[in-house]
Structure formats: structure tokens, C-alpha cells
Design brief:
The complex is a heterodimer of chains A (246) and B (332).
Chain A: E1 4-13, E2 16-26, E3 31-36, H1 42-49, E4 57-62, E5 65-67, H2 72-77, E6 80-83, H3 95-99, E7 106-109, E8 112-115, H4 117-130, H5 146-157, E9 164-168, H6 176-191, E10 195-199, H7 203-209, E11 212-217, E12 220-226, H8 232-240
Parallel strand pairs in A: 3-10, 3-11, 6-9, 9-10
Antiparallel strand pairs in A: 1-2, 1-4, 4-5, 7-8, 11-12
Chain B: H1 5-10, H2 17-22, H3 25-43, H4 50-75, H5 83-99, H6 104-128, H7 133-152, H8 164-172, E1 174-175, E2 178-179, H9 180-198, H10 200-210, H11 212-217, H12 222-248, H13 259-269, H14 281-300, H15 308-330
Antiparallel strand pairs in B: 1-2
Helix pairs in contact in B: 3-14, 4-9, 4-10, 4-12, 4-13, 4-14, 5-6, 5-7, 5-12, 6-7, 6-12, 8-12, 9-10, 10-12, 13-14, 13-15
Classes of the chains: A alpha/beta (246), B mainly alpha (332).
The structure holds adenosine-5'-triphosphate and magnesium ion (MG).
Magnesium ion binds next to α1 of chain A.
Chain lengths: 246, 332
């Protein structure tokens, strides 16, 4: 059974048709590379899956059952996690607070729910160690390197046992060594049976880890095929429109 | 690996308490306020008198209470220019309801209710209609004061019905020698400080001020947080309004005029960043204290109070400059 199935997803922002009739399927343990030019609709598509936007039309099915997300927490409850483009971090908060942003742990003390910093620091620290990152839970994100910030954004997706992880340009703005780390991480997640959508403008990244390549062009899905049956040249043609569809 | 997981989890960016303290603007403002107090007690024989200390603490409590609400607003990335008008609205409702023969608690509930309504209108327009906080609260500054005038028919109220003495005792009296407004401020400061640090509300408010886009994406209820923050600010202004009537023993429609500027100054001197995301309850209190100490010292030293604005203004600039320099250093 597909981990995630999109059927005829469309989305318009006023007059802008960001997505039109997008359908695709991802199996557990599969990595899908999602490519496309700037403004093609990639972020919009993953934000719909993550519960940030509601589709104007179309259906989302997870593990065979139809779902409808009104807010991110709905998607998280169904095992969908996302690394946002630009990471969506608050510079003025600690690494741990960012990891738990929007789903902070609390302990009931008398009439009030008090933040459980001890557990949040501990769990965040474990996740950073798991990610082999030097990030420390109590450090302010403001003073972090690009790679550490990346680790914070990725650690967020591992808080629960996710079924689907969406990564919106996780390798933009980090060093070559860190890119390799992220790609390794993606492989490890895949080996745990997690389905992954990887958005990237970097052809080598996608060809290294993806099983399947999908291409969006002006809101339409113009390709959805195994990596082994494609090539960087073909994908480039599909992105620019030199090749109509494949 | 050289550091264990436990070390990483426990590690802080500052090695010890002292380096943490000295890196904070509010610490230096606190030092400045304490030094000013010490200097004044040495130079004048009027500062350290019981009477004067009583006045200083009571006066600064009024600004301090609202600075707590203002700090929440500023930390969430907003501004509330309507607090001075909310003060007069709350005071006027208290006066009118009590003068009509109602007991104090009814009047207090009505006053807080009116204040919360002002905050709710601000919050709804800002959070749900997406209007700029500056514009909305500037409008409310005008509207609320005008409504207070309509309510009172622009007459002074100084007779407060059956609970007259209770009201005056609450605002102007003291328990164990501590003026009641100061007690109210300390209680509110502790509650606010706790809420900032230990509740989701606090965490979310700072997240919204730090990066609203990120807060929205991660599912923080941004609109509700903004609404609550303006209601909180109005609440603090409402409490102050009630206490001020009791202290003054009367209400006129110019009560709280230009108070928003003093309150914003207190919050900013105390370390709240107008760009959002930074501020503390302790800072709000210390900022308010410093402003009152400046005002008081000018009076005691026989300097014209016209100079007050100059001193407060300089302190705002110095405090913010200090913060800039520190950030500049640490980013090198
Ligand atoms: N919240 C929004 N409101 C209005 N229009 C939007 C919104 N979000 C995206 N769009 C529009 O939808 C289209 C697709 O945007 P999207 O961010 O999905 O592109 P993308 O493929 O992620 O591009 P990039 O590679 O630059 O990240 C663009 O025309 C964009 O302007
Ligand atoms: Mg994008």
C-alpha cells in the first residue's frame, strides 16, 4: 500500500494557479526527488501535504485512508513531518525550543501546564547526537552555523516516528560535507521504511539518493519515473520545457 | 567524541553566572538604577526618607505594571499606543460605576471588562484583519480617551459611593508599609515572568516576535497569541487605571495622557527589542524603576523637571546603543 497518494491536487492563490491536477504515489521506504524551476509549485505541494495549505481540489490518501488537514498538527498526527525551505527557525529561541516549536512538552503542575524543559533538552540533545551534529540544545539558533541550523530543522522531523518526511531544499546553503551528511541521513530514514520527498535544485543530490524523479513545471507534473530510467540531461529538459513530458 | 551527550545537553553558551549577567542589557540598567539610588541617598538627605521611597515605589509601580503588558506586546513584534487611553477608560468606568452607588467589585469588574474589550478590538484588528499594530492602537488611543470623555461628560469624579474608602485604601494605602500598587506590580511581574519562561503562551509569543512566518508554519496559533497579547496589555492598563483612581482620589479625563510613551521607554530601557522577540518581565520593572529614579532625582536635586525628557531620551538611546555594541562584538 502506498504511504502517500495524491490524486488530482490543484491549488490556486487568487488568480495564480500554483498547482494543477497533480497526482503521485510514494511507497514506504521510497525517496522521491521533486524538481522544478523557481515558482513551479514544489513548496506549495509539500505544504499542502504538511497541512499548511488546503488544496483547492483533489484528495490526499495516507496508508490507504483519505485525510484532510486543517493545520500542521493534523498532518503530524498522521506521521507527516517537514523540513521547510528556509528552515522556519526562530533565531531568538534555543535549539531545543525550535525543535519543539508548536508541540512543546508540558507537565501539569497544579492548575497550570508548565513547560518540561528537562525532557525537551534531553530529547533534543539525543536527536542532535543521532544526527551527528555538534548542535547543543540550549544554544540560541541566532549564533548557529548553517549546518547546525539544518540539524535543528531536521531534528524536528524525528521527534515522532514519522511515516513521511518532506524536505524542501534541505541542502541549500550548507557545505559539501554537510550535504553528504544530509544525504546519508535521508538514506538512513529510507532504510527505516520512511517515505521521503526531497525537493532540490541540485541534480547530483537527487540522483544520489532518489529512487524516483518527479518534475513540476508551472504547476503541472510533467514527469514521474524511476531514476534509473532518466538522466540529468532529460530532467533539465523537463524542468525548462525543452522536453514536453516524460 | 570528546563531549558526552550529557555535557552537550547541559552546556550553556555562557560559562558562568557572571558572564551571563554582564551580557544582559537589563543587568546594566539595574546597576545604573542602583548606583543612582546610592548616589542620591549620599548627596541628598531627602531621597532615603521613608516618605520619598514610598512615593517613588508607588509611582514607578504604575508604569511598571503597564510595562509588563507592553513588554509582552513588543516581544511579540507589536506595539500598543493605546495603553494611556485604556488607563483613563478603566479609571472612568470605575469612577462612574462607583459614583452610581455600586460596590467596588462590580466597578472593578466593569473596568477590567472595558479594558479587555479595548484590547480585544485592538487584537482582532491586528491579528485577524492583518492591520498594522501602530495604526490600530494609534486609532484606539484617540477613540478610548474620547469614549472616556463621553462617559464622564468630561466632569471630574471624586465621590465614589459606599466603597469610597476601600478604593482610596487600595490605590493609596499600604500593607506592612508597602504601597499596594507596588504589591500589585510585584505579583504581576512574577506571574508575567513565569508565563514568559514556563508556559507555551510565553514560548509562542516570543516565537511570533522572533519569526512570525516560522511560527505560522510550525502550527503556533499566531492569531490567537496576538489577540491575547493585546488583551494582556489592556488588562495591565486596566489594573493600573483602577489603582490610580484610588491613589489620586479622583478621575479626570487627562489621566494617563502620554503615559504610553513612558511605558514604551521603560520596556525598551529594560531590554525589550522593538523589532520583536526579546524582552523580560524583570527588564520592564527595572526600566520603569530607572525612569522614576531619574524623575525623582531631578526634583530632589532642584533641577527643573523639564529636563526629565532629556534624561529619559538619552537613556533609551544609551541602552539600545549598548545592546548594539554587544551584539556587534558577539557577532564578530
Ligand atoms: N502564500 C501564497 N500566496 C500567494 N501566492 C503564493 C503563495 N505561496 C506560493 N505562491 C505562488 O505559487 C507559485 C508556486 O510557488 P512555490 O513556492 O510553490 O514555488 P517553488 O517551486 O517552491 O519555487 P522555489 O524553487 O523558488 O522555492 C508561485 O507563483 C508563488 O508566487
Ligand atoms: Mg520552494
Amino acid at each position: 500500500m502506498a504511504a502517500l497518494e495524491l490524486s488530482n491536487i490543484s491549488k490556486n492563490f487568487g488568480a495564480i494557479q500554483a498547482l494543477q491536477d497533480v497526482s503521485m504515489k510514494i511507497e514506504p521506504g521510497e525517496v522521491v526527488g521533486l524538481m522544478g524551476d523557481n515558482g513551479a509549485g514544489k513548496s506549495t505541494l509539500v505544504k499542502i501535504i504538511a497541512g499548511n495549505f488546503r488544496p483547492s481540489a483533489g484528495d490526499i490518501t495516507i496508508d490507504g485512508s483519505h485525510v484532510e488537514f486543517h493545520k500542521p498538527i493534523d498532518a503530524q498526527r498522521k506521521g507527516v513531518e517537514i523540513v521547510y525551505q528556509d528552515l522556519a527557525l526562530c533565531n531568538n529561541l534555543t535549539a531545543a525550543s525550535n525543535v519543539y516549536l508548536g508541540r512543546e512538552l508540558t507537565a501539569q503542575i497544579g492548575p497550570v501546564k508548565v513547560l518540561d524543559y528537562r525532557t525537551m533538552f534531553k530529547r533534543a540533545g539525543e536527536l542532535f547526537a543521532e544526527l551527528k551534529s555538534e548542535t547543543r540544545p540550549r544554544d540560541m539558533v541566532k549564533r548557529m552555523s548553517g549546518g547546525q541550523r539544518q540539524a535543528v530543522a531536521i531534528a524536528r522531523t524525528l521527534l515522532t516516528q514519522p511515516k513521511i518526511v518532506l524536505m524542501d531544499e534541505p541542502t541549500a546553503a550548507i557545505s559539501v560535507r554537510q550535504v553528504a551528511e544530509v544525504l546519508n541521513l535521508i538514506k538512513r530514514l529510507r532504510d527505516q521504511g520512511i517515505a521521503i520527498i526531497l525537493i532540490s535544485h541540485r541534480m547530483p543530490d537527487v540522483f544520489t539518493v532518489a529512487d524516483k524523479i518527479t518534475v513540476l513545471r508551472r504547476g503541472r507534473l510533467v514527469a514521474d519515473k524511476p531514476v534509473s530510467k532518466s538522466s540529468p540531461e532529460e530532467v533539465t529538459g523537463l524542468i525548462t520545457g525543452a522536453i514536453e513530458a516524460a | 567524541m570528546s563531549v558526552t551527550l550529557e555535557q552537550a545537553i547541559d552546556s550553556r553558551q555562557h560559562q558562568n553566572l557572571l558572564s551571563w549577567l554582564t551580557s544582559r542589557q537589563v543587568f546594566w540598567v539595574f546597576v545604573a538604577a542602583v548606583l543612582a539610588c546610592v548616589a542620591l541617598s549620599l548627596v541628598t538627605d531627602t531621597f532615603a526618607t521613608e516618605r520619598n521611597i514610598f512615593n517613588v515605589t508607588r509611582n514607578f509601580a504604575f508604569v511598571g505594571i503597564i510595562a509588563l503588558g507592553m513588554t509582552a506586546v513588543i516581544a511579540s513584534g507589536g506595539i500598543d499606543l493605546s495603553v494611556g487611553s485604556t488607563v483613563v477608560m478603566s479609571a472612568m468606568v470605575t469612577g462612574v460605576v462607583m459614583a452610581a452607588g455600586m460596590p467596588f467589585w462590580v466597578a472593578a469588574l466593569a473596568a477590567i471588562g472595558a479594558s479587555l474589550a479595548i484590547g480585544a478590538v485592538n487584537g482582532l484588528l491586528i491579528a485577524y484583519a492583518g492591520m498594522p499594530a501602530f495604526v490600530v492602537t494609534l486609532g484606539m488611543l484617540s477613540v478610548a480617551r474620547s469614549l472616556a470623555m463621553v462617559l464622564s461628560d468630561n466632569k471630574m469624579i471624586w465621590e465614589f459611593g459606599p466603597d469610597h474608602d476601600l478604593l482610596l485604601w487600595l490605590g493609596g494605602g499600604a500593607t506592612f508599609g508597602i504601597p499596594h500598587p507596588l504589591i500589585a506590580m510585584v505579583v504581576l511581574a512574577l506571574a508575567t515572568g513565569f508565563a514568559f519562561r514556563w508556559t507555551r503562551w510565553g514560548q509562542h509569543l516570543f516565537a511570533v516576535g522572533g519569526n512570525e512566518e516560522a511560527a505560522t508554519l510550525t502550527g503556533v496559533p499566531v492569531k490567537r497569541i496576538k489577540l491575547s497579547v493585546y488583551m494582556f496589555s489592556a488588562f495591565t492598563a486596566g489594573v493600573t487605571g483602577i489603582l490610580m483612581v484610588g491613589w489620586l482620589g479622583g478621575v479626570t479625563t487627562n489621566l494617563g495622557q502620554a503615559m504610553e510613551l513612558t511605558v514604551i521607554a521603560a520596556a525598551v530601557i529594560g531590554g525589550a527589542n522593538l523589532a520583536g522577540g526579546i524582552g523580560s518581565a524583570f527588564g520592564a520593572v527595572v526600566g520603569a524603576l530607572l525612569i522614576e529614579v531619574i524623575r525623582n532625582s531631578l526634583i530632589l536635586l532642584g533641577i527643573s523637571t523639564f529636563w526629565q525628557g532629556t534624561f529619559v531620551g538619552c537613556f533609551i538611546v544609551i541602552a539600545v546603543t549598548f545592546d548594539r555594541i554587544r551584539n556587534f562584538r558577539s557577532s564578530e
